[in-house]
Each structure stands twice: as structure tokens, then as C-alpha cells.
């Protein structure tokens, strides 16, 4: 799957659209990669940039990160508020990492080393020591953890930061999904006991589930990563996994790791407990990125770009007063007062951009003191009395959110197949499904499955071991090794 259109072709398409009123040229179900590229560019979400793998997040997509469409449930604001409710404080650490700090974590950075970008010059002179750009901030933050944590009263120590990170990826880049620079929040915490750390790992995981399900209407499966797939620096990794039905691929939505005492050991993060004994702290780290936006487009994007000719109406005063009321109620509203486009053209334009509700006001509406509200998801139209618009529109937005989530959940559930044998497993993978299979939980077997499924569209791997485990009767065998199965694992090809 390639998500690529030449800049020239995209520009031509965009220009063409302006002149002709035409929208997307490919259907989601026909060429998913090209459809995605068209949607993000023609929907005014992304501008391409002259450095490969870097994208400009235009206001239309940045607003999703900043402010989602529902009442006051903004993505950053929602997550930031909930993170603070967990007692975590925001801080900001530098973008640059010294080589010395980076090699402290050598063992765990090794695998990632090719992705680290370095600054080697200032102006024309070579720097005395090259400086890395943070790919993640463990090595930037943990020396400060070591310095500021002294006794048990300094614990728990909980820090979050909203920032950009750079990973010089070599896999094919895709806007939002895999880019060389991206935005995220990274939470880093330290506790006196493993029990407290464990509790937070799952509390954060559930916050991430809520971001996907309650804000973006994307169903996710909470689970634990296998030993092969976990963050090598940690003890265990939990994940929320989403699914893209059209490509049959899983996609990691966000992760919450228990780091155990590995980093405490490397960075000497120790505290004196009540008995004045020196103990290593237990740590967690967790992150959610702008990938969320790409997953939302992939799951909920469609081909809808209707074109309809209607007489132009100039009822800007009524529109302005409607918009004022809705804004005062905390809704995000955009008035389209362009008079050089027909209403039909404007409908297409905003539908392409994914606006969930359109409010139309024509002379007849004005005469009847009503507005016409049109849902994007169902196309349903209804006339709403002007004095009821705030309540009714808030209700409709809630309803749309719930219906989108249910629709995506059903589609996702239809793509999960149970397999007890290798044959059933391969059949399900070929059918672009995710596979729930009894597994012996052995690293060798997972590597073996990867090798046996390696093909053009990538190898299958474990996505997670779902927290919600079906019954596993005594004597059930692993689908791949035929050894006794220990748990159900979710397998699939992934992004
Ligand atoms: C790339 C280059 C260097 C991922 C990397 O998941 C280092 C790394 O450590 C690296 N890519 N990782 C793992 C990140 C772990 C962890 N960090 C905090 C998270 C969530 C937020």
C-alpha cells in the first residue's frame, strides 16, 4: 500500500477541483492509498513539504489535535485535563540530547539508533560534539528524576510533556500515520512500589481508550504486547489497538509501558524508604500521538462529495446570529459567507472536509423561524425551530458520535476471526482479518509465525493479548506450535 501522489498531480487535482467543482477522483474501496492521499490534501488537512516524511498540519487537521468537534471535549484539552486528574504535572524538557545522555541508555537505544537525527554543524563550523534531536525523552528526563528524587516523600513523581519528537524513519512515510516529526504527549512517572505503577499503566490505557472511543468514535482493543513486540527497555507494554477494515491491518493507537526498574538502574534513580533503605524506583512511560488523526480519517473517511446546484441565498445576518448562539454554547462553528460559490458547491466543500452537521438558512427557513440541519453521516435533514437550535444540535452531535462508534465497532468486530489451526489462521489473514488464536506465548513461535507469513504485504505479528480473554478450555493447543495454549492472542498485519 503506497500513500503517495506526486506534488504536481495533487496540485493539478486541487486546481481542477476548484474550477470544476469535482472532488475525490478515487474511491476508498478501490485504491485506499490514493484515496487517503487525496482526502488529506483536498480536505485541507495536509500540505506536503520539501523534506521527505515531514508534513504541514493545516488548521483543519491541527484543530482535531487541539479541539475536537464535540462540545468542550477537545482532544488535547480532554487528555490534558484527565492526565492532570491523575496527579501528573506538565513540564517542558529540551529538544536536544547530548550523546553522553543517549548512550546511558545504550542497550535500549541500540535497536533504534539508525532513527536518531543529529545536529553536527552550526553555520559552517562543525560542532565539537554532535547533538541528537529527541526521538523520545527518557534520556533527557531521567537524569533530572535521579537528581530530584531523594526520599520516599518525593514519590510518586509524575511528569508529562506535550512536544514534538523526531524519528528518521526509513519505512514509507504516510501523513499522520508515520512521519519523521510528530506531536505527542509523553508521560513519565516514578513510584515506590510496583503495585502503584501497575495501577497507573492501566488507568492511562483506559484514558487512551476513551480518547479513541469517546472523542474519535474509533473502537479499540486494550491489551498487552508480547515479549517480541513490547518496548525492549521496559517490563511490559500495554496498547490500544485499532483496525482499518479496508486494508485489513491493525494499528497501534497509543501505548502505556511499565518500565520496571530498568531505567532506575541505568540512571541511578533511587530513594530512601521509611526504613532508610535505598531502593530503586518503579517507572512508567506512556504516549499518544497525532497518529490519532490519521486513524480517524482511515476509519471514518468516505467518498462523499455530492454536488448540488441551489440558488445562492444571502441570509448572512440570520447565519451570524445562529453561529453566535452555537459558539456561546461551546460548539465549533464555521460560517461560510463566500458569495462567489453556490450553496451546492459549499455543501460539497464542507462534506469533503468531514463537517458532521450543516446548518442551512434560506428565505423559507427565515419566514418560518427555523433552520435546516443536515447530518453528514446519514444525510438526514430536519427543520429545527430557531429557539431550539443549541439543544437540538448538541443532541445530534452526541448521537452522531455514538452512531459512528457503533458502526466502526461492528465493522471491526466483523473482521475478528477465531482460528484454532494454522490453516484457519492463514485463511483469515488472507481474508484481511485480525485473528484471535490460542497461543503458547513463546517468543520462538512468534518469530516463526512472522517468518512463515512474510509476504508482499508484510508479516503477521501479535497485536496484543487482549485484557478481555475468552474462555480457554484445558487442553486447547497453540494454533502455530500445537503446544498447550496459555492465552488468546490477537494477530494481524499492521502499520
Ligand atoms: C527511536 C529512536 C530512539 C521508540 C525510538 O512509547 C529511541 C526510541 O526509545 C525509543 N523509538 N522508542 C521507545 C519509546 C518508549 C516510550 N517513550 C515515552 C513510549 C511512550 C512515551
From TrEMBL:
<dbReference type="InterPro" id="IPR002316">
    <property type="entry name" value="Pro-tRNA-ligase_IIa"/>
</dbReference>
<dbReference type="Pfam" id="PF03129">
    <property type="entry name" value="HGTP_anticodon"/>
</dbReference>
<keyword id="KW-0547">Nucleotide-binding</keyword>
<keyword id="KW-0648">Protein biosynthesis</keyword>
<dbReference type="InterPro" id="IPR002314">
    <property type="entry name" value="aa-tRNA-synt_IIb"/>
</dbReference>
<dbReference type="InterPro" id="IPR045864">
    <property type="entry name" value="aa-tRNA-synth_II/BPL/LPL"/>
</dbReference>
<dbReference type="GO" id="GO:0006433">
    <property type="term" value="P:prolyl-tRNA aminoacylation"/>
</dbReference>
<dbReference type="GO" id="GO:0017101">
    <property type="term" value="C:aminoacyl-tRNA synthetase multienzyme complex"/>
</dbReference>
<protein>
    <recommendedName>
        <fullName>proline--tRNA ligase</fullName>
        <ecNumber>6.1.1.15</ecNumber>
    </recommendedName>
</protein>
<dbReference type="GO" id="GO:0005737">
    <property type="term" value="C:cytoplasm"/>
</dbReference>
<dbReference type="InterPro" id="IPR017449">
    <property type="entry name" value="Pro-tRNA_synth_II"/>
</dbReference>
<keyword id="KW-0436">Ligase</keyword>
<dbReference type="GO" id="GO:0005524">
    <property type="term" value="F:ATP binding"/>
</dbReference>
<dbReference type="GO" id="GO:0004827">
    <property type="term" value="F:proline-tRNA ligase activity"/>
</dbReference>
<dbReference type="InterPro" id="IPR004154">
    <property type="entry name" value="Anticodon-bd"/>
</dbReference>
<dbReference type="Pfam" id="PF09180">
    <property type="entry name" value="ProRS-C_1"/>
</dbReference>
<keyword id="KW-0067">ATP-binding</keyword>
<dbReference type="InterPro" id="IPR006195">
    <property type="entry name" value="aa-tRNA-synth_II"/>
</dbReference>
<dbReference type="Pfam" id="PF00587">
    <property type="entry name" value="tRNA-synt_2b"/>
</dbReference>
<dbReference type="InterPro" id="IPR004499">
    <property type="entry name" value="Pro-tRNA-ligase_IIa_arc-type"/>
</dbReference>
<dbReference type="InterPro" id="IPR036621">
    <property type="entry name" value="Anticodon-bd_dom_sf"/>
</dbReference>
<keyword id="KW-0030">Aminoacyl-tRNA synthetase</keyword>
<dbReference type="InterPro" id="IPR033721">
    <property type="entry name" value="ProRS_core_arch_euk"/>
</dbReference>
<feature type="domain" description="Aminoacyl-transfer RNA synthetases class-II family profile">
    <location>
        <begin position="71"/>
        <end position="306"/>
    </location>
</feature>
<dbReference type="InterPro" id="IPR016061">
    <property type="entry name" value="Pro-tRNA_ligase_II_C"/>
</dbReference>
